[in-house]
Amino acid sequence: MLKNIFLNPRYQPYWKVLFWLVFATLLFLTLTPQPQQPIKLQNIDKLFHFIAFAGFTALLKIAFQRLKRITIISLSIALGVLIEVIQYFIPNRGFSFADMLADALGALIGLALGIYIINRQKQLPVQ
């Protein structure tokens, strides 16, 4: 196992590349006309929003560790709001306060997860 993969400056460029790839994928999936959902459960998209923003925000914290927590959470929530506003103008998409709430809750959990991962790595003994 690679020790301190999240803290070693040698790996930071890889985390940043991964972050930008996830960011581009998130934008593509949220800003293109919505295809039919494979799962036909009511409000399942809220779970998708929560998971996407939790992962995005955790990765943002890991890739850009020097950013302050308030900056990270502000960027993530602002992105969620911006996406919802833009979706209003996209065919088969729509503006949703519930989606923004799911994004914000996902961002909060994602930030906590990113902080936990970094702090956990700091506790590992260096070999």
> Which stretches are poorly predicted, pLDDT < 50 over at least 5 residues?
none
Number of strands: 0
Biggest sheet character: none
What portion of the residues fall into strands of 2 or more residues? under 5%
Shape: elongated
User: Into which percent range does the helicity of residues fall?
Assistant: 55-70%
Order of helices and strands: HHHH
Mean pLDDT: 89
Rg (CA only): 16 Å
Number of helices: 4
**How many individual domains?**
1
Cα(first) to Cα(last) distance is 11 Å
Structural class based on helices, strands and sheet pairing:
mainly alpha
Describe this structure in words.
- The protein has 127 residues and is mostly helical.
- It has one domain (9-31, 38-118).
- Helix content is 68%, strand content 0%.
- It has 4 helices and no strands.
- The radius of gyration is 16 Å and the shape is elongated.
- 23% of the residues are buried.
- The model has no long low-confidence stretch (mean pLDDT 89).
What is this entry, summarized?
Helix content is 68%, strand content 0%.
Defining traits:
mainly alpha, elongated, 127 residues, single chain
Give the SSE layout.
Blueprint (H helix, E strand, L loop, with lengths): L11 H20 L12 H20 L5 H19 L9 H27 L4
